[in-house]
Amino acid sequence: MKRILITGAAGFLGSHLCDRFIKENFHVIAMDNLITGDLKNIEHLFKLENFEFYHHDVTKFVSVPGKLDYILHFASPASPIDYLKIPIQTLKVGALGTHNLLGLAKVKRARILIASTSEIYGDPLVHPQTEEYYGNVNTIGPRGVYDEAKRFQESITMAYHRFHGIETRIVRIFNTYGPRMRLNDGRVIPAFMGQALRGEDLTVFGDGSQTRSFCYVDDEIDGIYRLLMSDYVYPVNIGNPHEITISEFAEEIIKLTGTKQKVIYKDLPQDDPMQRQPDISKAKEILGWEPKVGREEGMKKTYEYFQTLSKEELEKTDHRDFSERNKK
Ligand code: UDP
Question: For residue 278, how far is the Cα from the chain centroid?
Fold first, then answer.
């Protein structure tokens, strides 16, 4: 049985990766420090013999007994509200955490895939974003701690590949959504769905003309799986190129949820990218991958998940003061 270490395993993407690799008959070693992750995302796996969980912070030395075939490094805060709350941890897990895991990959002779992000393109001046675009990042802005940690992560990963010859893969993940997103992570999808369920107005930041392209989690996980199994070492964009403005998206959520509330406008957070859309030609060509789940179907499934949350969980949200704290 192949053995895989997944960091950030109790998070949104990490937990879906655990499910996928269990399904593919791997022995899954899950690791998380539970700062932003939640054990309820993986508790259904605890009874399995080929699943184990380590409560550990990967910015400290990482040690795993036995052989390891693969490592997936998905530990990181991943939403603007988290970078504001825990900026130092965000920098450390991308930099020190990645260093530790590359070291582990070297001693175990494991193949390692690291989770990079469309954020490395910053507020992009090229549209759509190809992997060749170097980006437009404000190093000292509120998002800088995430963007620069992820850029450093890509550099050190390529250095380990070139200098130590370890097998590395880099995925650049664009906005992804689906069940198990954290309700209070401040991201637009949980924010709008939570607001609809609580009977609050939907908060659009800025004039809503900024765009995003949302990828359903099953598609994203499949792209990551294919990249890990490929022999391609350079970064690959995995995301859904179907672009929409945030105000149009708010209207879609009003229609989907049937809420009687309206859209209200708040200040645009600093360095909020105006346009974001992946060019996925590489993923198509190299991995034979493209997204299959449309927004209507994906959002329906995601809303069904949020509908299962208790009233208490729905109230436990602090995104409401986000636009206030994140003013220019
Ligand atoms: N956004 C919004 N209302 C909210 C939360 C987010 O209008 O309650 C906007 C946000 O300003 C951004 C877009 O939605 O332009 C996507 O934000 P998210 O935090 O989900 O992801 P990111 O900015 O990292 O792509």
Answer: 15
Query: In b/e form, how buried is each residue of 36-59, taking b as 16+ CB within 10 angstroms?
Result: bbeeebbeebeeeeebebbebbbb
Could you list the residue range(s) of the whole structural domain that residue 67 is in?
3-327
DSSP, res 166: -
* Pocket mutation for ligand 1, best pick of 205, 209, 321, 324 (most atoms within 8 Å of C-beta): 205
Overall number of domains in the chain: 1
CATH number of the domain residue 275 falls in: 3.40.50.720
Catalytic residues: 146
The per-residue pLDDT for range 108-159, each reduced to its tens digit, is 999 999 999 999 999 999 999 999 999 999 999 999 999 999 999 999 999 9
**Cα 239 to ligand 1 centroid, rounded to whole Å:** 16
**Identity of the amino acid at 26:** F
Residue 40 tokens, joined: 């309820």
Residue 286 in tokens? 């190299």
Contact 206, 267 (CB under 8 A): yes
